[in-house]
Each structure stands twice: as C-alpha cells, then as structure tokens.
Amino acid sequence: MSNKIKWSIGLVAVVVLAYVLLPDNGTSGDTQQRQIETTQLDVGNIVRAVATSGAVRPLITVEVGSQLSGQLADIYVDFNSEVKAGDIIALIDSKTFESRVVQSSADLKVARSNVIVQRAAIDRAKANLRKARLEYERAEPLANAGTLSASDFDTALASFESAKADLTMAEAQLQNALANEEQRQASLESAEIDLERTKIRSPIDGVVIERAVDQGQTVAASFSAPVLFRIAQDLTKIQIEANVDEADIGNVVEGNEASFTVDAYPDLEFTGRVEQVRLAPNETNNVVTYTVIITADNPDLKLLPGMTAIVEIITGKAENVLRVSNDAVRFRPPPDSELARKVSLTRPPKGEGQRGGHPAKAGQPEQGKNKKSAEGRRGLLWIQTDDGINPVPVLLGISDDQNTQVLGKKLSVDDVAVTRIRTARK
C-alpha cells in the first residue's frame, strides 16, 4: 500500500474520531443533530388535589335498641319511615310489666297502711307514757313521806320507764315503716319505668334507614341492648369518610374544598368541604392512611348512605399565575453532555427559595384556617433562546398533574422551556 493511501486512511480516522469525541456544546451546529421538544410558559390556573375515596354516611346515625327482654307485639315503622323524636316505633308485650306495676302498687299501699299503724302506735305509747309519768309523780312524794310502800313505788317507776321504752320502740318502728314505704315507692317507679320502656320511641327526628326485627320476634337484653332500628337524623346533609394516604395528609386541612362523584350519577359532580382530619392512623398491610371527614349538602336526597364516593380534595389553588409544563420541570440533560456541564446553580435572591419566603400570588384563595401560599421550592428550567439552551434557576410553587407554578420575575410568557432532547441516531 502506498504512503499516499495510508495517509488518506489515517486522515479519515482522525476526522471520525474527532466527531465522536467532540463534546456537545449546545451550538446550532450540534442541535441540528437533535430533536428538541419545548413548551412555552403561559398564564393560567393551577389546582392541586388529593384523590381518594370513601363511603357516604349520614351526619348522625342513632342505633335504637331495647333495654328489656320480651316479644315484639307491634312494629309501627318500616324502612324509610320518617319519625319525630318521641314517636313510638315498636312495642314489647307489656302484660308481664303491667302485672309488676299492679303488684308494686299494692305493696306500696300496704307499706303506707303500716305507716299509719305505726303512727297510731306512737300516739298510744305517748298516752301510756303520760299516764305512767303521772302515776310516778304522785307516788314519789308519798314514798318520801312513808305513806307508800317501796314495792308500790318501784312498780310506778318501772311502769314509767317501760312506757318511755315503748315510745322509743314505736318511733323506731315508724321509721322502719317509712323506709319500707320509700322502698315500695321506688319499686313501683321502677316497674312503671319498665312498663314505659316497652314502648320503644325514636330519640331524634329522622328517617329509619334500617329495621333489624320483625313483629313477633323475641329480643333478649341480658348483656347488651340489641339494635332494633337505625335512624339517620337528617339525610339532607351527609358526610364522607375518606381515607387519605400518609404521603398526602400533610396538605389536607380543615376547610379544604372537595368535589366527588358517585356511580349512581356519573355525570354529576357534588361539592363539599373538609370538616375534620382525624389523628388516629389506620394501618392495613403496612399501608397507613388517615380518615378525613368531608361534609356536603344533599337537598335532593340523591346521595344515599353506603354509596362509594370518588373524591378530590383541593389542597391548593393558584389563579392567573405563570406556569410551565411538568415535563420541563423534570427535564435534565444527559449527564455526559455539554449542557450538563453548563449547569452552575446560583442561590436565589435573599428572601426567596425558602418555604413561606415568597408572598402568595394574587388569586390564591384561603383554604380553611391556613392560607395556602406558594411553597417557593428551588428548581431548574432549561430555557431555549437564540444563543442556545441555558439553565435558569427558578422558584416553583404548587403543582397539579400537568403544570407547575413559576415564581419570581426571571421568566415570562415569552420564554420557551425544553421538555426533551432526542439525539438523532446515524
């Protein structure tokens, strides 16, 4: 092979090697070998939400049971019956309890009669005591004068002392009779209470959503009150018990707005508000969730207890703010490219870059008791200009599933951010 041919082959190898090893410098010459995908910053709204689900429940549900055992003689309500507080909704056979009332009433009458007898005995004992005292008082001077024998005086004294003891005994028997009267009175009241309890009444105004017994059924209340009915107080207002993952619960506070749908009305969207964030964790298969109570109006009674609601809890809003696609926020150049070597982050201006350091944008409403201001977390956007592609450190606010809020005044709607670079394969 001639030297000329060898020199030509060597020159071609050097050119190829130089093309492979030359770094990407971001110039227009290199970008012609790549497909650059971009997105333009714009102004719009961002809504951050937490997705979850939960069951529709009445605000207040009361379980109505029986404190007595017995057979249900009558049932006056059924499913969906409207009731008022105090309405009789069922009746337990009352014959046994009526007989107890009669028996207790008779016992009370006997006790009261005994009180009268004991009071009469006291009156008699007092009369006997007066007589014995007079006889003793007459006998004492006679005995002192020696005109009455000692035996007769002792008899008068013993009669006087015995009369005092009889009075004391009669008074004690009266107290016993009075206590017995009170006991019989209490027994009568207890029997009357039990008789009244045979009438099972509604404790609240509401709607019967469950009836667990039928007429003629026997209920046993030996250890606990059996549940006969469940009554929902007001179905025009409902609550949803939603389970929120521990990763999202930090953004949920009382007062957050929420929207939800149910399978029965797939085309309707209902709205509500977070009423309570319960602190007790729920752990299932090492997954920790927290119960969030969402209240909503139900004026048309379309939402029924037990329905499954698919919920979105709005944890942040930003209206009319500068925003960029999430793809641009996530974009990073290949680590071995020239663009990666151009990264030189500088600290954000003083007062920016820390949570709460940047004022909330106009249009960001208050959520519950806490104002949802922009977080001000640091980020990096790759902005394409006539001079090439350059990294710009920025502050990022809230995000939804498509866009992220851009804070500060470094960028505007005229800027274009890179979302992806595809290297041409040749």
Brief overview:
The chain has six helices and 21 strands. It is an alpha+beta fold and 426 residues long.
Question: How does this structure look, described?
Answer:
The structure is a single chain. 31% of the residues lie in helices and 38% in strands. The two termini are 31 Å apart. Residues 1-32 and 344-374 have low confidence and may be disordered. By secondary structure, the chain is of the alpha+beta class. The chain has 3 domains: 23-46 and 319-423, no CATH class; 61-93 and 199-232, RNA polymerase II/Efflux pump adaptor protein, barrel-sandwich hybrid domain (OB fold (Dihydrolipoamide Acetyltransferase, E2P)); 95-197, Helix Hairpins (Orthogonal Bundle).
Number of strands: 21
DSSP helical segment count: 6
> Measured on Cα atoms, how large is the radius of gyration?
47 Å
Average of pLDDT:
84
Low-confidence stretches: 1-32, 344-374
**Share in β-strands:** 35-45%
- Main sheet record: 6 strands, antiparallel, barrel
**What general outline do the C-alpha atoms trace?**
elongated
Strand and helix layout:
Elements: H1 3-21, H2 28-31, E1 34-40, E2 42-58, E3 61-65, E4 70-75, E5 82-83, E6 88-92, H3 95-145, H4 150-197, E7 199-201, E8 206-211, E9 218-219, E10 227-232, E11 237-245, E12 257-262, E13 265-284, E14 287-297, E15 308-325, H5 326-330, H6 338-341, E16 366-367, E17 370-371, E18 377-385, E19 388-399, E20 403-407, E21 416-423
Antiparallel strand pairs: 1-21, 2-11, 2-15, 3-10, 4-6, 4-9, 5-8, 6-7, 8-10, 11-14, 12-13, 12-15, 13-14, 15-20, 16-17, 18-19, 19-20
